[in-house]
Design brief:
Alpha-Beta Plaits, Rossmann fold, 14 helices, 597 residues, Elongation Factor Tu (Ef-tu), domain 3, alpha+beta, 31 strands, 32% strand, eight-stranded antiparallel beta sheet
């Protein structure tokens, strides 16, 4: 029987996955004590700073003569795609639940993904060292969710290391080993579940070997892209790259072919030998469906090619990112990008700035609408600029989502109020636990447009931080949407145009005008800020001029001298007003303020 075990850790955001992974590395002596640091597998500066996992990270450990391949996964709903890719490469999953917070929405979302892949699930309670940990109550929630026995649930603390060796033993006992013997003779096949770009070695692909084996010097073919290459190096992650002469079936490791063309190595593709290729590729996983679309433009026009290069490299590392070139009259050439959510967009923007030193302008995010024109043409509108003129539109449809929200039952009223403001439709309520501190899961249907901007932040506010949510696409439904334009100093700011429901255009316009008034720097002249639908102004305000103290240089003397200077300034201001308007440069902070409204 094989001594390999492949597993991943799945959980809601902030339930302690990366901390538990640190204890695994310590317990199995994979990393020397002097090299150990907190959240060791979160290797991105951004991950450590925000304390969240963004990228899946594989690592190999040895425990009691067994090889354990672990993949640490993210927990936030915007990175579910990373989780589904990890699950395709393993046989089992540790379902981690915070003993002080209980089962959350993303716990259930990730669990369903694991059950779809037919994985063995080990339920584990984490953070049992916390004074407010309620082991009994949370165990009941897990039993209710999984239908398992009380003795199947393990308890540990990722912080103190209590219960971690027993958990590693349970991984060896309960998770089935890969079928090594029968697949040894098959032609080589491996699934690429992740990749990143190295400036010196080209594309580094993370693979799970399913059939046969691979060694240095072999010629391989990528079945999806049909490109061929020679294996320059292969090995495993510990978490740094460790070279091995061969990569046998059942193992998780990496493959370096020296390919520099980023498009040739795709996540989800199958690698096979060029001489004796496999008959058919492995079933990939479903393509990520972007939910939120935003325009990304370089602040400086000549940064376009470096932006393109940077996005190609990020695409390797973030397979859920979709983009296509876009041209805007005001902002020049850039890209229309698809993201899985607002956090995904925020992280992407931050990575462009830090890893590549690029400054960008982001247009207001929108969702994809299906538009049927009066001449019978159908088109998908991803940006406000693509929306046809009102007389040409026959009908429009927008995406609706199934939303699960979990919270203590005393917050149900607040959540219902929030969702009904956002055009949500109530479906059912289920209770996850009994007793005085009951926790409820409320199911809703909601339009995606009302989820993407600040719904998650508002949910946290109305539930005092206890609420969590998970969502997936339901279908498309009819809607009435118009384009809301923003004018600053009577100039249309194309990147601030948004698609809004006709009945809420006035209130949204007012909010945008208010947030711009707060975040725009003052100019030497009064600036008009307006929101308009077509030629009709629906909201407006004025940012008063900056007042320069022209009398500051006077030191006493007659009042007429003071008046003379003020009169002179008045004339100058009048002249400025006569010229009409100045050019207002809108800073990135103002864009972000409008995005968050």
């Amino acid at each position: 029987m094989s001594s390999i075990r492949n597993f991943c850790i799945i959980a809601h955001i902030d339930h302690g996955k990366s901390t538990l992974a640190d204890r695994f590395l310590e317990t199995t002596n994979t990393v020397e004590e002097r090299k150990m640091s907190d959240q060791l597998l979160d290797q991105m500066e951004l991950e450590q700073e925000r304390g969240i996992t963004i990228k899946l990270q594989p690592v190999r450990m040895e425990h009691k003569n067994h090889t354990l391949n672990l993949i640490d996964t993210p927990g936030h709903v915007d990175f579910t795609y990373e989780v589904s890719r990890s699950l395709a490469a393993v046989e089992g999953a540790i379902l981690l639940v915070d003993a002080s917070q209980g089962v959350q929405a993303q716990t259930i979302g990730n669990l369903y993904l694991a059950i779809e892949q037919d994985l063995t699930i080990i339920p584990v309670l984490n953070k049992i060292d916390l004074p407010n940990a309620d082991v009994e109550k949370v165990s009941e929630e897990i039993i209710h969710l999984l239908g398992c026995k009380r003795e199947d649930i393990l308890a540990c603390s990722g912080k103190t290391g209590e219960g971690v060796p027993e958990l590693l033993d349970a991984v060896i006992e309960r998770i089935p080993p890969p079928d090594v013997e029968t697949k040894k003779e098959n032609p080589f096949r491996a699934l690429i579940f992740d990749s990143y770009y190295d400036d010196y070695r080209g594309v580094v692909a993370a693979i799970r070997v399913i059939d046969g084996c691979i060694k240095k010097g072999d010629k391989v073919t990528f079945m999806g892209t049909k490109s061929t290459a020679e294996v320059l190096d292969t090995g495993f992650f510990s978490p740094s790259l460790e070279t091995t002469p061969t990569q046998d079936n059942g193992q998780i490791g990496y493959l370096i072919t020296g390919l520099k063309a980023i498009t040739e190595v795709r996540v989800g593709d199958t690698v096979t030998h060029t001489k004796t290729p496999a008959a058919e590729p492995l079933p990939g996983y479903k393509e990520a469906k972007p939910m939120v679309f935003a325009g990304i433009f370089p602040k400086e026009g000549d940064d376009y090619s470096s932006l393109r290069e940077a996005m190609d490299k990020l695409k390797l590392n973030d397979a859920a990112l979709m983009y296509e070139p876009e041209h805007s009259q005001a902002l020049g050439i850039g890209f229309r990008c698809g993201f899985l959510g607002m956090l995904h967009l925020d992280i992407f923007q931050e990575r462009l700035k830090r890893e590549f030193g690029l400054h960008i302008v982001v247009t207001v995010p929108s969702v994809a609408y299906d538009v049927l024109k009066t001449n019978g043409d159908e088109l998908i509108v991803k940006s406000p600029q693509d929306l046809p003129e009102p007389p040409q539109i026959e009908s429009m449809k927008e995406p609706w989502m199934n939303v699960d929200i979990i919270m203590p039952d005393n917050f149900i009223g607040n959540v219902m109020g929030l969702v009904s403001d956002r055009k949500g439709r109530y479906i059912t309520t289920e209770y996850l636990s009994a007793g005085s501190q009951k926790r409820a899961m409320v199911k809703y249907e909601m339009p995606l447009a009302s989820l993407i901007t600040d719904f998650y932040d508002k949910l946290k506010t109305v539930t005092s931080g206890y609420g969590s949510m998970n969502y997936e696409l339901k279908n498309y439904e009819k809607t009435d949407v118009v384009r809301l334009d923003v004018l600053v100093a009577e100039e249309k700011v194309e990147s601030l145009s948004t698609l809004v429901w006709r009945d809420s255009a006035f209130s949204i316009g007012k909010k945008i005008v208010e947030s711009l008034k707060d975040s725009l720097p003052r100019q030497q002249f009064a600036v008009k800020i307006q929101a308009a639908i077509g030629g009709k102004i629906v909201a407006g305000d004025r940012l008063s001029a900056m007042r320069k103290d022209v009398t500051a240089k006077l030191y006493g003397g007659d009042v007429t001298r003071k008046r003379k200077l003020l009169e002179k300034q008045k004339k100058g201001k009048k002249k400025m007003m006569a010229l009409g308007k100045g050019k207002v440069d809108i800073p990135t902070e103002a864009y972000m303020a409008v995005l968050k409204r």
